[in-house]
Amino acid sequence: MSTNKLIFVFFFFFVSLSLLAQTARIKGVILDKNNQPVGNVNVSYSSIGTQSNKNGFYDLKVPANQKVTLVFTHVSLKKITITFSLDSNEQKEFNPVMSDQEEQMGEVIVTSNNRKLIQGISTIEPEVIRKIPGANAGIENILKTLPGVNSNNELSTQYAVRGGNYDENLVYVNEIEVYRPFLIRSGQQEGLSFTNTDLVQNVDFSAGGFQAKFGDKLSSVLDITYRKPVKFGASLEASFLGGSLSVDAVSKDKKWSVVTGVRYRNNSLLVKSQETQTNFTPSFADIQTNINYQASAKWQWSFLGNISQNKYQYQPLTRQTTFGTIDNPMALTVFYEGQEKDKYDTYFGALKTTFNVSDNFTLKFIGSVFHTLEQEYFDIFAQYRLGEVDSSIGSETFGEVAFTRGIGSQLSHARNDLDALIVNTEIKGFHDWKENQFEWGIKYTRESIRDRIIEWEVIDSAGFSLNPPIIDLPKNDQPYSPYTGPLVPYQNIRATNFNSINRFSGYGQWSLKSNIGSSEVWYNAGVRMHNWEVIGATTSGKSQITFSPRAQFAIKPDWEKDMVFRLSGGLYHQPPFYRELRGADGMMQPNTKAQQSVHVVFGNDYSFKMWDRPFKLVSELYYKSLTDVNTYTIDNVRIRYSANNNATAYAQGLDVRLNGEFVPGTESWFSFGYLKTEENSDDKGYIARPTDQRLKFGLLFQDYMPNIPSIKLYLNLVYNTGLPGGSPSYADPYLYQNRLNDYRRVDVGFSKVFIDNTTRKENNTGWFKNFKELAIGLEIFNLFDNQNAITNTWVRDVYSKNQYAIPNYMTTRVFNVKLTAKL
After folding, report:
1. How many CB atoms lie within 10 A of CB 160?
2. N or C: the chain end with fewer CB closer than 10 Å?
């Protein structure tokens, strides 16, 4: 039996296991409608209960394998009654929001509170994020299993949503917008995502149709909240890919609390599994802290800071790729000289204060500074040999290159430097009036960019320099006739951009919960405004302004079946950021307009019981009509824009996700997405956009062994159909519409838990007594060793004048060992 079949049988042996048990635990933080912690809340079932502390934290053990009705009561807030059905050893994180206006009742069906439900927001449990394996484990790793979210690069934390690109996604941490480096061109250079999963308390994600309070992007919102510690704690993780350490600290008077995390990552294990043999010495590290200070009952302050230093040193040595067909196999062999040295240093700090003016009026002030210093230096000389492989079985040279069809070389050079400083100041207001809620905000942003680009590439084949296809030069027909024209680089970009952008934005929105007959309904309507102007020493633009009205409507019919229907949409704009203002030639185009999208989403949430366990089916139909489209090309993860707003486009599709307890006590989900997105440039007709991901299947699965519940399994599976791409950056997309091969990947993790909340008493001796959790795991990335290509390398045969597309494959199967501990 082959290795793949053995792994397949081994995997499904674990997937099929389940377990019955006895006790479970529910814990969380109780908040009011202004997201402030509520102390002295009585939490009880039957005659057993506990009380939340000053920070709103509670922790309660409950019976498993039966319905438990939990009651939350407070002297000044309305009662919450929630029914849980949990399994043995399950730890449920439930963070209720108590209101002073209405009593809340319901059953927990793998969902969040109604406020997020009616907004079309998906909530992801932090524990799921920390446990699910992936080459780049973290929040983005989980997002890629959701419908409508696509990525064909396991080394990258970037993702595309419903036909958008990587630049069309908003990311917030504690309501503060965060940024990523500008110059990164490949996934293996990225290092660490901004978000430290060890510090996370809540993760909310919207794939479209989001409210006006969120910013000006076309595709999605990822809204993350870091936790506020209630007592000292620490967690540690170490693996062959790096490690992390986080510490929680609280002052004696409980006014100060700090959570700090340090991370280090080294991708050598993954990169060295690729076909290119390299000397690879990366260094990705960061430190992040979230400090909270409760000045009084009405006033609190917080600081979020991050320092990240990513160094990427890459020295390719050799590469051999076999391609072609069984009848005509070919091979590309490359020998390299030179190296690449990249560095991305980012510094981020944000101060936020919340002031409760009254019970019905809250103000928030936010100020942030983001500074990035980036350099991209490389000189790489590649000499290649393109040949036919001997496919004669029994031949002494079987599998070796029998005939060389072409030889050549390529020299790539870059000296790119970027220094960007982004400063934000913002004020937000929240008002409650009877059943209505009003929110507004005003924001000023100053972006200062200093960018120098020097890139060129020289190609020759059999000793004859190749001219670029986009410049009108005399025909080069060497070696048959001499060439008398000028020698020019195949690609050449030189530009210096020193620019500043001033932005003023604001929003206002209204929300209401009401009834139509016996059905509950929710309304939301709002509008955003954005004004910006590009200023530069040599290039300046005119002042531009956009208005973006948005609305949501949700209804929960008084039916026996638990269903919610949602309709949302509006006019969305994306004013250009620096990368969108920079054309393919590297020069700034300061009058580039905002891309515009009319977006409509119709959704349905259906909660039900199957096998006497909770499940939920979420379905969404969507359509986007885009104008003033800024077309672009994607090479690995680098996006290059045309900056000319010369296209229209559309995106349409269906997203479906079924999640619930397929195995008692664990949350898993299956997702399916269908997408079609096309663009029309200069009225030449519609063609597929670079992110036209037609079909997507995702699976996130958790399980544990019967009779040995301490042995657990975590599975992450993604299948995406091929994207349009792989063409040279200079190619006309109307002439090249081939697609890359389908992307197939399975990552699986096995974990042995030595200590958790249910076994601490048994291990309360020696050094084990200091641990709250202790586990060791084995992770297998790319379980079935699929070959996934991200781009193509193009090689020219000088004699036949043919160009061959040689796929650049991603990582192969890799094994990793991970240790996790909590104190």
Report:
1. 27
2. N
